């Protein structure tokens, strides 16, 4: 993404007196024109980068200017490196070059300590097994985000309704166990959150858009979830046979031991199809104690499932 490329260019200029625009373009797999736009952005950030003409010319820092290598501490560089490792775990191979550049500014005498800091925390977003189409969607959306280009796709809603969407992409969000796209939907004329697994026939359009400066620090995709009318307290009881599942999915401080090897847990959930699918995934080791409407709905779903399979095994 652009911010990674800009930081990589700055680090290269810190370590090399001159570098050709064509070399940078080949290195980052972009056009020379894009590199010159990047140089303008770096200049706008207060770092004087100039172009020297002639056979031995190139791009370099203004003569006499020295960028303070201590502008970031080693701990801060290690934190950036760790964050890049996490992103690179899922279709983020473009970050590898930036990680190499960050490593290159660490003095050899401190490289061992730096490696130690960058392996203290590892966040791997990739799923178990093959990544498949989801990785392709992420790669396409990253391109559209960088180029400020609209994307089009068919979206399957939670109630299985399919609608065609044209969206101005703003942010890729990894929340819970899934990837989402936050963007402006031209059909709804508002910002929406789209789950990548529900996208079909995703394509990058040719129409560009002007990205608005929207604040994301308030996590707009969580506002609906936090509405009191959308949530209710669900009380679950895990039997002793399901103890390991409870410990896998919930914080130990949320679990109340029942004295028989099982647990009770009380949490606020939005009542929707996701909740019932989540509860059914535990099979027979969990029972919903409250509220009663959720118990009845779950019992109905379980009966429908049982009836479907019983019909298949009944003798003709």
Number of beta strands: 11
| Number of self-contained structural domains | 4
Structural class: alpha+beta
Task: Identify the CATH architecture of the largest domain.
Answer: 2-Layer Sandwich
Described by strand count, sense and barrel closure, the largest sheet is: 5 strands, antiparallel
Q: What gap, in angstroms, lies between the N and C termini?
A: 61 Å
Mean pLDDT: 80
Radius of gyration: 26 Å
Instruction: List SSEs in N-to-C order.
Output: HHHEEHHHHEEEEEEHEEHEH
Keywords: Transcription, Transcription regulation
InterPro entries: CBASS_pafABC_assoc_protein (IPR051534), DeoR_HTH (IPR001034), HTH_11 (IPR013196), PafC-like (IPR028349), WCX_dom (IPR057727), WH-like_DNA-bd_sf (IPR036388), WH_DNA-bd_sf (IPR036390), WYL_dom (IPR026881)
GO molecular function, one term: DNA-binding transcription factor activity
Pfam families: HTH_11, WCX, WYL
What does this protein structure show overall?
This is Transcriptional regulator. Keywords: Transcription, Transcription regulation. It comes from Paenibacillus graminis. Pfam families: HTH_11 (PF08279), WCX (PF25583), WYL (PF13280). Residues 2-57 form the HTH deoR-type domain. The chain has a five-stranded antiparallel sheet, with helices on one face. Strands 9-10-8-11 form a four-stranded antiparallel sheet. It is elongated. The protein is built from ten helices and eleven strands. The mean pLDDT is 80. It has helices at 2-15, 21-28, 32-44, 74-88, 96-104, 111-118, 133-147, 243-249, 273-280, 292-313, and strands spanning 49-52, 58-61, 149-156, 162-175, 178-185, 190-195, 199-208, 231-238, 255-257, 263-270, 286-290. With 316 residues, the protein is α+β, with helices and mostly antiparallel strands. The protein folds into four domains: 2-67, Arc Repressor Mutant, subunit A, CATH 1.10.10; 70-118, no CATH class; 133-217, SH3 type barrels (Roll), CATH 2.30.30; 228-313, Alpha-Beta Plaits (2-Layer Sandwich).
